[in-house]
Amino acid sequence: MYKKKQKRKKIIIITTISIVVLSLFIYSLVLNRKTTKGENILKSGITYIEKLLIEPFTSKELQNIDQSKSYLIQKNVNESLEKEIEELKKALALNSTLTEYSIENATILSRNRTYWFNTLNIDKGKKDGIKKDMAVVTADGLIGSINKVGHNYSEVKLITCNDLTYKVSIMINIGDSDTYAVLSGYDKKKNRIKITGIDKTVDLKKGDKVLTSGLGNKFPRGIFIGEVDKIENDRYNISKTAYVKTNQDFNKIHYVTVLKEKK
User: Fold this and answer.
1) Which of 39, 67, 184, 225 is the most buried (most CB within 10 A)?
2) Domain that holds residue 259
3) What letter would DSSP give residue 70?
4) Is 211 in the same domain as 233?
5) What pLDDT, on the 0 to 100 scale, is given for residue 10?
6) For residue range 226-245, what is the model confidence (pLDDT) as tens digits?
7) Can you give the pLDDT at residue 220?
8) Is the CB of residue 129 less than 8 Å from the CB of residue 151?
9) So what's the pLDDT on residue 57?
10) How far apart are alpha carbons 113 and 29 in whole angstroms?
C-alpha cells in the first residue's frame, strides 16, 4: 500500500513538472518577445530540472526495451555517440585556433521544432560570462549569435533564421579583392543561405569563400561561413543573389563555442 502511494506521488510530481515545462515551451514560441526577469528565473530553474529529469527517464526507458531489439539499438547508440564524440573533438580542437578570444564551450539543451532553423538553447548563461550579441561558432564556421541570456542558459539566433531584422555583415573573397554584403535569410528548398542585392558587375564564381566582415562590431572579422554554390540574376538584371553552402549541418548541432571577447 505504501509503495503504491509513493508511486502515485511520484506520478503527480512528474506530471506537474511536465505541465509547467510544456507551458513554458508554448509560451516561448512567440519570437522576438522580451522576457521578464521572473520568466528568466523560471526558465533557469526549469532548465536545471530538465537536466535532472532527462537521465533517469532515459535509463528507465532503456531498461523497458524489448531485449530482442537491443543489438540494433546499441548499434545506433554507438554510432550516435561516435558522431557526438567526433563533434566534441572538433570543438576542442577549435579552442586551440581561437587563441585571440576568451571562449566558452557549450552543449545544446533544446531546439524549437516549430522554428528549427531560427534558434536553439545552450547550457551557458550569465554565470558563465555570456552576453547578448556574442558570436557562436563550431569547427565548421559561424552558426549565429547570442540573442537572449538567462542565469544558466542562453538562446542562440541562427544565421539560417528568416528574421529580416537580423543582419550579418559578410564579405565574399573574389580573387585578390572582397565584396561586401549582408546575409538575407535561408532557402529551405535549396538548403542554402542567401545573399541578395549584390551588384551585377561583381564577378562572382562558385567556390568563392564567404566570411564575416567585422563591420558593425557584432561579429569578429574573418569567421568562415561557407562558399558560394549558386548565382542568380534578379528578374530585372539589376543585381545578383548568391546561395551559400555551409559545412555545418544545421540539423545536427550538439556542441558550440561562444566567442566571449578578445584577450
Assistant:
1) 225
2) 65-263
3) H
4) yes
5) 60
6) 999 999 988 888 899 999 99
7) 85
8) no
9) 46
10) 10
- CA distance linking residue 192 with residue 161, whole number of Å: 11
218's grid cell: 557584432
Q: Residue 238 has which C-alpha cell?
A: 539589376
The answer to whether the beta carbons of residues 111 and 29 sit under 8 Å apart is: no
For residues 44 and 137, membership in a common domain is answered with: no
Segments of the chain assigned E as strands:
101-111, 119-122, 135-138, 141-149, 154-158, 169-174, 177-187, 192-199, 209-212, 224-233, 239-245, 255-262
Q: Assess contact for 135 and 258: CB atoms under 8 A.
A: yes
Backbone φ and ψ of 258, nearest 5°: -100, 130
User: Which regions in the chain score pLDDT beneath 50?
Assistant: 29-32, 57-63, 65, 67-81
Sign of CA dihedral 72, 62, 251, 140: negative
Considering the domain architecture, whether residues 24 and 77 belong to the same structural domain is answered as: no
Give the alpha-carbon dihedral of 155, 161, 166, 169, to 10 degrees.
110
Q: What is the pTM of this model?
A: 0.66
Strand-strand pairing, 192-199 and 177-187: antiparallel
Q: Which three cell numbers stand for residue 215?
A: 563591420
Residue 47 contacts residue 130 (beta carbons within 8 Å): no
